């Protein structure tokens, strides 16, 4: 699965890779979480565009998003049949820029987070599905989900699911929804090849949504982990819960 990711590339570098017309300027993000606005690349009127959308897919037929299950991921194996996604895979495919993501592995009764990133470096594009929900009073909300696939042998040691990454030379085909079909792009919904990604353990502080700083992606040793684990638990017990985020604020 993919429940947290990062964007560290400079805005102009992302614009060059994804080729959208807009020129957004924003700082790096090191702990992007569900319900927050995330950058999304779409194809519309013959060009690529940059948009912000809520991470947490809301189908158009939902009556009240507050009572609907949060859909942050869509399984590649069933995306063409699931009522929530079967129209979006044909008509509203998108890309979600990222430089890596986090995954948690159970080790000795505790959850150890890892930062996973492309071995070759540079930003990547997660395969995404977008939807616009319209409320009874005319309100609108753009939302998105990241497509995942069964992990390859190498990456399955961390988790059995991985986000699907679309290669740059397939961006055009993935984003082009004019045919109203998905058959021609289903071949892209596969896990990364073994060796394409590298990873290392990071501090458990990444589990706190309110923390967003460069140190989160730095490797942490076994000794540092043992030292950090107990103090971090005490901090969590004493911490005051942050204000509830409705997901409609600025990503940046």
Can you walk through the features of this model?
With about 250 residues, the protein is α+β, with helices and mostly antiparallel strands. It has a single domain, classed as SOS response associated peptidase-like (hypothetical protein yedk fold, Alpha-Beta Complex), CATH 3.90.1680. Helices cover about 15% and strands about 35% of the residues. The strands form 2 sheets. Strands 3, 4, 5, 6, 9, 10, 11 and 12 form an 8-stranded mixed beta sheet that branches. Strands 2-1-7-8-13 form a 5-stranded antiparallel beta sheet, with no helix packed on it. The longest helix is centred in the C-terminal third of the chain and has 17 residues. The C terminus is likely disordered.
Number of domains: 1
Please tally the helical runs, counting DSSP H or I stretches of 4 or more residues: 4
Low-confidence stretches: 234-252
Tell me the total number of β-strands: 13
Characteristic key phrases:
252 residues, alpha+beta, hypothetical protein yedk fold, eight-stranded mixed sheet, five-stranded antiparallel sheet, 13 strands, globular, disordered C terminus
Nutshell version of this structure?
The chain is α+β, with helices and mostly antiparallel strands and 252 residues long. It is built from four helices and 13 strands.
Topology diagram in text:
Elements: E1 5-7, H1 11-18, E2 29-32, E3 37-44, E4 47-55, E5 73-75, H2 88-91, E6 93-98, E7 100-107, E8 110-118, E9 124-134, E10 140-150, E11 161-163, E12 165-166, H3 171-175, E13 197-201, H4 222-238
Parallel strand pairs: 4-10, 5-10
Antiparallel strand pairs: 1-2, 1-7, 3-4, 6-9, 7-8, 8-13, 9-10, 9-12, 10-11
């Amino acid at each position: 699965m993919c429940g947290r990711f990062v964007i560290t590339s400079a805005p102009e570098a992302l614009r060059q890779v994804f080729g959208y017309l807009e020129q957004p300027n924003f700082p790096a993000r090191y702990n992007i979480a569900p319900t927050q606005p995330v950058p999304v690349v779409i194809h519309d009127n013959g060009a690529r565009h940059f948009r912000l959308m809520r991470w947490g897919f809301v189908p158009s037929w939902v009556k009240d998003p507050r009572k609907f299950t949060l859909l942050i991921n869509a399984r590649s194996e069933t995306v063409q049949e699931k009522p929530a996604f079967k129209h979006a895979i044909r008509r509203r495919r998108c890309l979600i820029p990222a430089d890596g993501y986090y995954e948690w592995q159970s080790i000795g009764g505790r959850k150890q987070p890892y930062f996973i990133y492309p071995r070759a470096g540079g930003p990547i594009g997660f395969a995404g599905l977008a939807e616009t929900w319209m409320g009874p009073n005319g309100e609108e909300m753009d939302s998105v989900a990241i497509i995942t696939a069964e992990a390859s042998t190498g990456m399955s040691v961390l988790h059995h699911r991985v986000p699907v990454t679309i290669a740059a030379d397939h961006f055009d085909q993935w984003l082009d929804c004019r045919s109203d079909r998905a058959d021609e792009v289903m071949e892209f919904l596969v896990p990364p090849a073994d060796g394409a990604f590298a990873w290392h353990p990071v501090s458990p502080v990444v589990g706190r949504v309110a923390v967003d700083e460069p140190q989160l992606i730095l490797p942490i040793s076994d000794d540092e982990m043992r030292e950090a684990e107990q103090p971090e638990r005490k901090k969590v017990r004493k911490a005051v819960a942050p204000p509830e985020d409705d997901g409609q604020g600025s990503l940046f």
